Amino acid sequence: MCNDSDLIPLRTAIVVNEATYSVVGLLGRGYFGAVSHIRRKLPSGKIQNLALKEQKRTEGENELKMLLPLQDRDHPHIVRLFGFGPVGENFILALEHARYGDLETYVRKDEYYMEKKKARAFYGQLLRGIHFLHSHRVAHLDIKPVNVLVMSSGHCRITDFGVSALMTEEGLCRPAGSIAYQPPEHRGGPYRINGMWQDLWGAALIYVFMVIADTPWTSASPENTQYGWFRQGRIFRHGNDGWARFQQWDEYCHLQRLLHHHPDRRLVPAGYSDELKDSFAGLP
Fold it and tell me: How many helices (H) and strands (E) does the chain have?
């Protein structure tokens, strides 16, 4: 059985905004479609590198509806869009190319894990990007390491708005996203979820991922062993070796508040604002 990505051709060249780009290589292929590294030589002589996302037209147009209105302010932590349009039965988005790839690859391959100071800085950038989205009533709904681009050793941007949705004034929207990065109250497929909490939960899990270099758990359900250990305070003894980097009691308490199973008792991180701050929920 094929999925949509099987129908996306492997191209050698593509026209974007009436300019021809050569395809350097494939960056990724999944259910959503395919992403390729493209480049061209500008009249100035400089080389322009972009990431070309190609998917079925309906999915591409829906993602554009979410992403295009966010481009007006050129937010430092939201991926930039350089071009878009239909190509046959498909739809392309020409996005900025990340020099260091996605965050999951960056952590696992290049560093194995991040120092906490750097992880806090990236976490703060994610929170500011998420706050910007929410101020436009957009819930990303799939905040996870592969959807964070590492532009430089100290700068990241949020990408992939394929399942994003507009929220009501109360922050409600349709459910979507990866199970491993959904909060426990979204288990069981409710008709409406709180998009703000889902994005903030995903960002907190990314912070943990950066420090321990592993996905904390596959599902925030009581039946999941890793998540159960976390709620019981046993993850530091029974989890993977990376959890040993969170041995201080105050660290565990802050993580418990950021990732509390009850949303009414969950901590809103201090970095969730438009202002630059040195402290993010007191994380040491």
Answer: 7, 12
Give the CA count within 13 Å in the CB-facing half-sphere of 213: 15
CATH of the domain at 63: 3.30.200.20
> Residues within the annotated binding site?
53
Cβ contacts of residue 54 below 8 Å, gap of 6+? 8, 11, 33, 34, 35, 36, 60, 87, 90, 91, 92
Q: Which residues are catalytic?
A: 142
Which of 72, 96, 120 delimits the end of a domain? Answer: 96
Calculated CA dihedral for residues 71, 74, 76, 82, nearest 10 degrees: 60
Q: What tens digit of pLDDT does each residue of 98-151 get?
A: 999 999 999 988 557 899 999 999 999 999 999 999 999 999 999 999 999 999
Whether the CB-CB separation of 54 and 22 falls below 8 Å is answered with: no
- Output 150 or 252, whichever has higher pLDDT: 150
Q: What is the value of pTM for the model shown?
A: 0.91
Residue list, annotated binding site for ATP: 53
Q: Tell me the β-bridge partners of 128.
A: none
Residue at a domain's end among 96, 123, 139: 96
What tokens appear for 157 in the block? 């941007």
